[in-house]
Every structure is written in structure tokens, then in C-alpha cells.
Design goal:
Layout (H helix, E strand, L loop, with lengths): L5 H8 L18 E7 L3 H14 L4 E4 L15 E2 L6 H21 L10 E5 L2 H16 L5 E3 L1 H7 L13 E5 L3 E2 L2 H14 L3 E3 L4 E7 L2 E7 L2 E10 L5 H8 L6 E10 L9 E4 L5 E5 L5 E7 L11 H14 L8 E11 L6 E4 L5 E5 L9 H14 L13 H4 L5 H5 L4
Parallel strand pairs: 1-2, 1-11, 2-8, 4-13, 11-18
Antiparallel strand pairs: 3-7, 4-6, 5-6, 9-10, 10-11, 12-15, 12-16, 13-14, 14-15, 17-18
The protein binds flavin-adenine dinucleotide.
The site of flavin-adenine dinucleotide has 40 residues, from helix 2, strand 12 and strand 16.
């Protein structure tokens, strides 16, 4: 693999940057692999990367029905944080943030990780009390978390409307939180995995599984049958469809979640703002200058990748109340993705009723931030045929035992 460096840049400038090597190959699928990963989003790519890097398993294929990173990975608003309430969540999201902190060096490829602080604003006494409880629990897990007074909030967010319809009570800040370039995360994992021998096969839709005596033998695809000793399925909003192909059901509902960006403006908004109460919405400013805006899912499950107009109206109305200056901005683009939501709003990393078949899904509205941690744990679990300590609480067993990890109720916002 060509190492990216100043001298590589200078060398390639001599040929007008026409001769850069491709970042990954376009191989023809082999007849058989040790592990087949279904879904070429960042979680699938990360899983293949850590299978090869940490476990020496490189006879691996990633099968992607479209192009890599074209699902939720390329559609999300890139908020990264690890300030979750419960110990199980703290362990996996903090592992992810720690890996993010070294990912550009690990990849030799800039993922533009910007730890610009994530700030939650409380608009009621109840939310303020909840922020205090969360800050204490989060710090108890060794994760940075501070309460901001109204005066401190004003310093961080000078454009915040203090005299609007919603009184401002307090803020919660994670200074190590921030954003990263989502495509770069997918491409960095793809480049690294390909370099270690993983086959990335795009335009290859999985249409079924061959299962004998409860053991997965092969995947059927739009490019023919591919045998696999183990199969990892990481397809976000389409996990119920794939589970159906394998003959079981998942406690998942799929909803459209949308986001939009404004026209570019000068740097004005230095942090990531999240608000989950009476004014539901979140906002950050991209490196291009666009304000990146999002909020909650549609109310109804659906596979339509656009999202309802009522959500746009509610989100923009909420954010205008908090930042009146945005009423002057034109919106440039709007899009949606299909998110996979469990009823405790925590992910599923699990074995399944089919032997040697593993599922990783249920990241809902907040899985981008978890990408390195999810790939790391899923790879370890597939390699060992057993869920590792960080992944184990997220297995499907919790829906039988009742040991749910109810982050939805804890934080009200899961981005
Ligand atoms: C609008 C929006 C905003 C979001 N904002 C945030 C945020 O700010 N922070 C955050 O942490 N998270 C956020 N998320 C959630 C986050 O994007 C996801 O949790 C995460 O990207 C999931 O990654 P993934 O790799 O599992 O899924 P995906 O990137 O969706 O990858 C799954 C892949 O599987 C492929 N696939 C599906 N079916 C098949 C098949 N039959 N055969 C082969 N391939 C198949 C799909 O084409 C897709 O590429 C947001 C999501 C959306 C939609």
C-alpha cells in the first residue's frame, strides 16, 4: 500500500496527480471465504479491518449491494461522543472514541476527527436535574463530562437565544466529543482492509442464505453463490430483511431519519449543539461552512429514504427558537436514511439461532460514533465464536432476560 506523505504528494504532483494508486481493488468474488461480511457500511468495513489486523483472519469478503459507505454511513451527521448513562454503553462508546482518537494515524489517512465539544442544552428543570445525574454517572465511568451554567453556555454559544420561548437552565458538555468525516472513516477502513487481503465486492446484493441443519453454509448473491464458514450481517435498516432470509425475527423497527444542510456561511458555530427537550434538534457547522441539522426519526416505520415534512418543520422551528439567525438561511440539501431501532435504543451484537451467523445492528440514530468500537468487538466475537466482554450485554438474550439497556429513556436523544 502506498504510504501517504508529503513526499508522495510531491512525487504525484509531477504527473498532475493522475497516477495515484486505487485505494482498494475490485476483485471477482472467490468461491469460498472464512468470513463473509454482509454490508459495506463503516461497521462492516471496520469489522473486516479488525478481523484481519487483530485476529489474522484475512480470507474475508465484504459484500455490498450498492457502493461502500452509501448507506447510513454516508448519510449521517457525524456526531461523536461517549457520554452515555449506562456502564455497558459507556464501555463500547468510549472504546470507539479512544479508537477514533488514533484512527488517522492507524490508517495513515485523515478522517478529519475534530474534537470540537458536544454540548446538550437543558430547557426545563427536569432536564437540568437529568443532566446532573448523567454527568455524575458518566464521570463515574472515567469519561469526561461537565455541567455548564447559563453564563458558561452563553460563552460557548454566543448566538443562543436566552430570552426565547424556552428558558435555558444548564448545559452538559463532553469536550472530547465532536465530528469526523464519515466518508473518510469508510474509505480508511476499506483501504486498510484491502491492503490486508480483504475482498471488497460492491454491487453484490445478498438475496438468501444456504442453511443446513441450522448451520450457515453459503450466501446467495446477485453474483452467484459464495460459501462461507462464518457470516457477519451488518446492514443497519435492512437487518430485519436479512434476518427474514435466515428464518428468524429481530426486535427491530426501521424508520426514516433525515438531515439537512444550509447554504455555506462563514465560521460561526464552533461546537456541536444538541437539544432533546421541548425544542428537539441538533446542529453543527461543517468544514465547508454549511450548518448540518437533524432531529428525530419519522413516527411511522418505513423504508422510504426521505423522511416526513412534519419533522423538517418541527426541527427548523425548534432551532430557530434557539438560534433566531438561522431563519435567514436557505437550506441546500435534505436526505434520509433507514435506521434500525430496538425498543431499548441500544444496539444488538449477537449470535443468532443460525450457527456461525452473527448480527450487528440496532444502532438506530446513533451508530456512527460507535463505528470503531463496534467493528473491534464484532471482529473479536466472530473470531472467537463467542461474544467478547464489551459486546456480551448487547446480545439478543437481553430481550428474553429483561436485562435491557434503556438509553432512549435515559437520554431522550440518541444521536
Ligand atoms: C440522517 C442520519 C443522521 C445520523 N446522525 C448520526 C450522528 O450524528 N451520529 C451517529 O453516531 N450516528 C448517526 N446516525 C446513525 C448512523 O449513520 C448509523 O448508525 C451507522 O452509520 C450505521 O452504520 P452501518 O455500517 O451499520 O450501516 P450502513 O452504513 O447503512 O451500511 C449497511 C450497508 O448494508 C448494505 N446492504 C443492505 N442490504 C444488503 C444486502 N441484501 N446485501 C448486501 N448489502 C446490503 C447497504 O447498502 C449499506 O451500505 C445517523 C443516521 C442518519 C440516517
Amino acid at each position: 500500500m502506498l504510504k501517504y506523505s508529503l513526499s508522495a504528494l510531491a512525487r504525484n504532483a509531477r504527473t498532475y496527480h493522475q497516477d495515484w494508486a486505487r485505494m482498494w481493488r475490485a476483485p471477482t468474488p472467490k468461491k469460498e471465504y472464512d468470513v463473509v461480511i454482509v454490508g459495506g457500511g463503516a461497521h462492516g468495513l471496520a469489522t473486516a479491518y479488525y478481523l484481519a489486523k487483530n485476529h489474522g483472519i484475512n480470507n474475508v469478503a465484504i459484500l455490498e449491494k450498492g457502493w461502500i459507505g452509501g448507506g447510513n454511513t454516508g448519510r449521517n451527521t457525524t456526531i461523536i461522543r461517549s457520554n452515555y448513562l449506562y456502564d455497558e454503553s459507556a464501555a463500547i462508546y468510549e472504546l470507539a472514541v479512544r479508537l477514533y482518537e488514533g484512527l488517522s494515524q492507524d490508517f495513515n489517512y485523515n478522517i478529519m476527527f475534530s474534537q470540537r465539544h458536544v454540548i446538550n442544552v437543558a430547557l426545563s428543570v427536569h432536564e437540568m436535574q437529568e443532566q446532573h445525574r448523567r454527568a455524575a454517572a458518566i464521570r463515574g465511568n472515567g469519561i469526561d463530562s461537565e455541567i455548564l451554567t447559563v453564563a458558561q453556555l452563553k460563552k460557548y454559544l454566543p448566538h443562543l437565544n436566552m430570552n426565547g420561548r424556552f428558558p435555558i437552565f444548564s448545559g452538559l458538555i463532553q469536550k472530547r466529543g465532536g465530528t469526523a468525516r464519515h466518508d473518510a472513516v469508510a474509505w480508511g477502513y476499506a483501504r486498510g482492509a484491502d491492503n490486508m487481503g480483504v475482498d471488497i465486492i460492491q454491487n453484490c446484493e445478498v438475496t438468501g442464505f444456504e442453511i443446513t441443519n441450522g448451520i450457515v453454509q453459503a450466501v446467495q448473491t446477485s453474483r452467484g453463490k459464495i460459501k462461507a464458514k462464518k457470516v457477519g450481517v451488518v446492514v443497519a435498516g435492512h437487518c430485519s430483511v436479512l434476518a427474514d432470509m435466515a428464518g428468524f425475527r429481530l426486535p427491530i423497527e426501521s424508520f426514516p431519519l433525515q438531515a439537512f444542510v444550509s447554504e455555506p456561511i462563514k465560521p460561526i458555530f464552533n461546537h456541536v449543539l444538541m437539544c432533546g427537550g421541548g425544542a428537539h434538534g441538533y446542529m453543527s457547522q461543517s468544514d465547508k461552512g454549511e450548518l448540518v441539522i437533524g432531529a428525530g426519526t419519522d413516527i411511522y416505520p418505513s423504508y422510504s429514504q426521505r423522511g416526513g415534512f412534519d419533522i423538517i418543520e418541527e426541527t427548523v422551528a425548534s432551532l430557530q427558537e434557539l438560534f433566531p439567525f438561522i431563519s435567514r438561511l436557505r437550506m441546500l440539501r435534505q436526505w434520509g436514511g433507514i435506521v434500525d431501532v430496538t425498543y431499548d435504543r441500544s444496539p444488538i451484537i449477537s449470535k443468532t439461532p443460525v450457527k456461525n451467523m452473527f448480527f450487528n445492528c440496532g444502532w438506530g440514530t446513533g451508530g456512527f460514533k460507535a463505528t470503531p468500537g463496534s467493528g473491534h468487538c464484532f471482529a473479536a466475537s466472530i473470531a472467537a465464536n463467542q461474544l467478547n466482554d464489551v459486546a456480551a450485554p448487547f446480545s439478543l438474550n437481553r430481550f428474553y432476560s429483561g436485562a435491557l439497556i434503556d438509553e432512549g429513556a435515559a437520554s431522550a436523544v440518541a444521536h
